[in-house]
């Protein structure tokens, strides 16, 4: 006898869900930039030394699909696009700040 679908699905840890939203080499740095203010694509790219246009686009699309980033397109020529955090994206700020503090403390213990 087969188990119902609900029971056959693997239970996911909530922390795993959070990590999946944050996964990607550049996402934390994108958040850091957007915590301070709304930014245009080129502003983000300039502030993230080493990121390619393709990678920035990919991460922003993923974050938008996850409901973490707003993308606002203005009807003008040339097109103007601004990125900002949604309330859900902003809600990660305390968690990211704590990760930052933990990282500093960890680095000091390694010296």
Automatic annotation (TrEMBL):
GO MF assignments: DNA binding
Keyword terms: DNA-binding, Transcription, Transcription regulation
Alphabetized PANTHER family for the sequence: TRANSCRIPTIONAL REGULATOR, TRANSCRIPTIONAL REGULATOR, MARR FAMILY
One Pfam family recorded for the sequence: HxlR
Domain of life: Bacteria
Protein's UniProt name: HxlR-like helix-turn-helix family protein
Domain HTH hxlR-type, first and last residues per copy: 13-111
Organism field: Lyngbya aestuarii BL J
């Amino acid at each position: 006898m087969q188990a119902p679908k609900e029971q056959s699905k693997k239970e996911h840890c909530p922390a795993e869900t959070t990590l999946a939203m944050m996964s990607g080499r550049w996402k934390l740095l994108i958040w850091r930039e957007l915590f301070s203010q709304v930014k245009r694509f080129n502003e983000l790219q300039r502030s993230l030394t080493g990121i390619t246009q393709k990678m920035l686009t990919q991460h922003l699309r993923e974050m938008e699909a996850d409901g973490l980033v707003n993308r606002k397109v203005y009807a003008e020529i040339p097109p103007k696009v601004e990125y900002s955090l949604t309330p859900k994206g902003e809600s990660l700020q305390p968690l990211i700040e704590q990760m930052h503090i933990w990282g500093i403390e960890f680095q000091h213990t390694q010296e």
